[in-house]
């Protein structure tokens, strides 16, 4: 998830750099260079590699500011496509083997509010009576999803957190990264709870509800994310058009966003 105000600040700062964002930031991450081949693959899949920086991490590429495409998924990316103007979407891969318990571990490098917010996010999902039950565990060894601090540069680019999508074998994505520089000193855990729930949503197969028009929640002029090669399947019964306050909007406005009725319909349909 992206912080709207920070993304605008980054855009302003980049405009004054001698080397522009377009020529440098989307091609070279702070730690690892992104190859031209990888950029071409991501761009062909529908991701915007010009407006948004691409980061090469140990487990994959972070694109569109909070989506992680694993190295394995990169091998199978297909060309993207335009999408209809409807709301909730899922990826092609979903979590299988339901009913199923998904264990979540929160790194001890975090402060207490991260544990509190994770518990609230878990409670929101479990209150929906899904075929997925979430459970916070005290050891990473038996966790399906591990929540860890993000790299330092997430804060610089206004990225609040990131996560990937389910695997082809039907497991949830196994990692969520959260930006401590943004959340360490918050007193109201509502926005942090929503960010954690949002990244959990990616892990089980939800796309952004406004990915056809990110300007809806991010402001300014932004491109749609396209199919992204991982699927963008409309979830029947959800409202037409982007829904205000959905937990899966692309950008955060800094408020708490519990599940809307449309969100609940989407969750119930998939799980």
Automatic annotation (TrEMBL):
InterPro entries in UniProt: MetalloPept_cat_dom_sf, Peptidase_M10/M27/M57
Record bears the keyword Hydrolase: yes
GO MF term (any one): metallopeptidase activity
GO BP of this protein: proteolysis
Pfam families: Peptidase_M57
Signal peptide: 1-25
Keywords: Hydrolase, Protease, Signal
Protein name per its UniProtKB record: Protease B
Source species of the chain: Mangrovivirga cuniculi
């Amino acid at each position: 998830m992206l912080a709207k105000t920070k993304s605008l600040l980054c855009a302003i700062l980049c405009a004054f750099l001698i080397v522009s964002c377009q020529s440098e930031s989307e091609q070279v991450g702070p730690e690892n260079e992104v190859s031209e081949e990888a950029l071409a693959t991501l761009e062909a899949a529908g991701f915007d590699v010009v407006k948004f920086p691409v980061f090469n991490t140990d487990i994959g590429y972070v694109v569109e500011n909070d989506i992680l495409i694993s190295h394995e998924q990169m091998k199978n990316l297909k060309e993207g496509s335009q999408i209809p103007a409807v709301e909730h979407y899922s990826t092609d891969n979903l979590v299988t083997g339901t009913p199923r318990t998904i264990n979540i571990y929160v790194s001890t490098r975090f402060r207490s509010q991260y544990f509190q917010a994770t518990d609230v996010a878990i409670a929101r999902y479990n209150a929906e009576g899904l075929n997925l039950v979430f459970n916070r565990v005290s050891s990473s060894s038996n966790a399906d999803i591990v929540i860890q601090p993000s790299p330092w540069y997430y804060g610089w680019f206004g990225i609040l957190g990131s996560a990937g999508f389910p695997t082809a074998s039907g497991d949830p994505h196994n990692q969520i990264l959260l930006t401590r520089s943004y959340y360490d000193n918050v007193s109201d855990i509502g926005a942090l709870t929503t960010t954690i729930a949002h990244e959990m949503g990616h892990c089980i197969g939800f796309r952004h509800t406004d990915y056809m028009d990110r300007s809806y929640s991010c402001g300014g002029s932004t491109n749609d994310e396209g199919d992204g090669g991982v699927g963008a399947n409309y979830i029947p019964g959800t409202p037409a058009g982007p829904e205000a306050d959905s937990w899966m909007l692309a950008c955060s406005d800094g408020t708490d966003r519990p599940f809307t009725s449309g969100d609940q319909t989407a969750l119930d349909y998939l799980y």
